[in-house]
Design goal:
Blueprint: H1 14-46, H2 51-99, H3 103-106, H4 111-133, H5 135-153, H6 155-202, H7 204-209, H8 213-238, H9 241-266, H10 276-317, E1 338-345, E2 356-363, E3 368-373, H11 379-384, E4 394-399, E5 402-403, H12 409-414, E6 416-419, E7 428-429, H13 430-434, H14 443-452, H15 456-461, E8 469-470, H16 479-492, E9 497-501, H17 509-522, E10 527-531, E11 543-548, E12 551-556, H18 558-564, H19 566-578
Parallel strand pairs: 3-10, 3-11, 6-9, 9-10
Antiparallel strand pairs: 1-2, 1-4, 4-5, 7-8, 11-12
Helix pairs in contact: 1-2, 1-5, 1-10, 2-4, 4-6, 4-10, 5-6, 5-10, 6-8, 6-9, 6-10, 9-10, 14-16, 18-19
Length: 583
């Protein structure tokens, strides 16, 4: 019932899983013996046997019942422990796998899909695993045991079971065949619904500002309607399960009662006949057989559901890592030189769909380099290749004179401080967020980095200062404050290369200028690469890269670009006229 790959997550919970199965076997043995003992007691009562014989069998029945209770309790307890432990390990394994993903790996899954796989899908697989070590063992064992006991009591009547079981099994298999693909489709629709919810929650301010609530409600209603329709189809098919099973129960009970009563009346207790106690035992065994078939049908349904979930979990676990360490990695970055040699990059596997083409440039350690360009000119793509957030499709990217693919990935990224376009803060205190840059940083180092990023003043204005709690995503601070905290966090790494990807767009020009001045003065030996929309943010850079339509249009000093580059001139003059160019 559980995919081979997922069994690796059982690990230390194999022992409780084994004990579960052991106690299930013992419980089934008790369950199968009990109807036989009850039948014998009835036969003794019918024959008016000695009370001592009846008491002995009665005591045996009580003992068997107590053992059944004990074994049932123990297998339930161990099953819950083993299944919950398996679920914990599986979630941890999935989370660990996603932590090794590159940006391109993450692009293969939506956020809602990953969350769904780690929550709902794991819960379904956990339930299936619990059933596989308990009910999946109990049901076939009880079926087999009850059949054997029924044949021991009366072979002819027991042939009824052999005729009914294959017919019921065929019915269950047909239901399984039709339902399984429907579950897979519904799970994909659940992913879509979660995506709609996440988009709405994240963009609720935009939704309200554009008065798009009705549109969002319609979109969500459409998504939930699709899920409802999908589950309705499934339920219509699964609804056949219970009446089919009950039909077999009634038919088998009727046939056993009919033929059993006939044998009791016509033959009696002699050879080829049977007694009332035997008929009672047979009816009990028929219920056990049908109960086990019912359990098997339930297992079929859970298996169908879990198979779809297992497939989705396996997809996440076996996602091939795009970025791997070389066999003999380099563990030291000597300096902050950055060089691009004939670099192409595509977000897809199609080489003709490159968004970055033939990029060539060299930045010397300690230089400050600005990057400007229109939307979609691949500014962010260019800098994301430096710390290997993505790998170049063609050509090579070098840091410190060494191809980035030759470095240990962690070593390379430790040497690069990067503040992305989307400022990400985590729930926790400001200090805890800053310590992401350097977990061992002292309070003095934290305050110094915050001062460089022009964040110390507003942090000190909070009642709890650096112990101020940030909500998820830093929702209780402004956009400019978030940007400055993120810059301080990157500075705490003391990187050899600092990349600011439009990271001061939410601060005023005065604060932007103060941040740049502080960096020029305090970290002169750090290579600084600044993507900016404002010319004022990069006018004092040593050089500026002008990006246009996925290529490097120019790479020169701001003074030379102002004289010779049309794109730079257009941006410069448009901002000068618009009043956006000032220190």
């Amino acid at each position: 019932m559980i995919e081979k790959l997922l069994k690796n997550s059982i690990r230390e919970y194999r022992k409780p899983a084994f004990l579960t199965s052991l106690f299930v076997v013992l419980e089934v043995i008790m369950d199968v013996i009990i109807p036989l003992v009850i039948g014998q007691i009835i036969n003794l009562v019918q024959k008016q046997a000695e009370l001592t014989e009846i008491y002995k069998l009665g005591a045996l029945l009580v003992g068997l019942s107590l053992l059944t209770f004990v074994f049932g309790y123990l297998n339930g307890r161990y099953a819950a422990f083993a299944a919950s432990g398996f679920g914990k390990n599986l979630r941890n394994d999935m989370f660990n796998a996603t932590q090794d993903y590159s940006f391109s790996n993450i692009d293969h899954f939506s956020t809602s899909s990953i969350v769904n796989r780690m929550t709902s899908d794991v819960t379904r697989v956990e339930m299936a695993y619990q059933m596989s070590i308990r009910i999946a063992i109990r049901a076939p064992l009880m079926l087999l045991g009850a059949l054997i006991m029924a044949f021991i009591i009366n072979v002819k009547i027991s042939l009824i079971f052999l005729a009914a079981i294959p017919l019921l099994a065929i019915g269950l298999l047909l239901i399984t065949k039709f339902v399984r693909p429907l579950f897979i489709k519904v799970f994909k629709k659940l992913d879509n619904m979660n995506n709609v919810v996440q988009e709405n929650v994240r963009g609720i301010r935009t939704v309200k500002s554009y008065v798009r609530e009705e549109h969002e409600i319609e979109k969500f209603t459409g998504s939930t309607t699709e899920i409802k329709d999908g589950f309705s189809k499934i339920e219509k098919i699964l609804a056949l399960n219970t009446p089919m099973l009950l039909g077999f129960v009634y038919a088998i009970t009727l046939l056993i009662s009919w033929f059993g009563a006939k044998l009791i009346i016509e033959v009696g207790a002699g050879p080829g006949g049977m007694e009332i106690g035997d008929l009672t035992a047979l009816l009990n065994y028929s219920m056990q057989i049908l109960m086990s078939l019912n359990m098997l049908s339930m297992i079929f349904v859970i298996t169908i559901i879990s198979r779809a979930s297992q497939k989705r979990i396996v997809e996440l676990l076996v996602e091939e890592q795009d970025l791997k360490n070389p066999e003999d990695p380099i563990y030291e970055v000597l300096n902050g030189d950055v060089e691009f040699v004939n670099v192409d990059f595509s977000y897809t596997s199609k080489p003709d769909a490159c968004c970055l083409n033939n990029a060539n440039l060299k930045i010397l350690s300690g230089e400050t380099v600005g990057i400007i360009g229109g939307t979609g000119s691949s500014k962010s793509t260019l800098v994301q290749l430096i710390p290997r957030l993505y790998d170049a499709t063609a050509g090579s990217v070098k840091v410190g004179g060494v191809d980035v693919k030759d470095y240990d990935v962690e070593t390379l990224r430790e040497s690069v401080g990067m503040v992305l376009q989307k400022n990400v803060l985590f729930s926790g205190t400001i200090k805890e967020n800053l310590l992401w840059g350097n977990p061992n940083a002292t309070d003095e180092e934290i305050i110094h980095a915050a001062k460089l990023a022009q964040a110390d003043n507003f942090i000190q204005s909070f009642p709890l200062k650096y112990e101020t709690y940030l909500e998820q995503g830093g929702s209780n601070v402004s956009g400019g404050q978030k940007q400055r905290i993120c810059i301080a966090r990157a500075l705490l790494k003391k990187p050899q290369i600092l990349i600011l990807d439009d990271s001061t767009s939410a601060v005023d020009t005065k604060t932007d200028s103060a941040i740049r001045t502080a960096m020029y003065e305090e970290i002169p030996h750090t290579t600084k690469i600044i993507i900016a929309q404002r010319i004022s943010s990069i006018q004092n850079a040593d050089k500026v890269i002008v990006m246009d339509e996925g290529g490097i249009n120019a790479f020169d000093t701001p003074e030379n670009l102002l004289k010779n580059n049309e794109i730079y001139q257009d941006v410069y003059h448009s901002q000068l006229k618009g009043g956006g160019f000032n220190e």
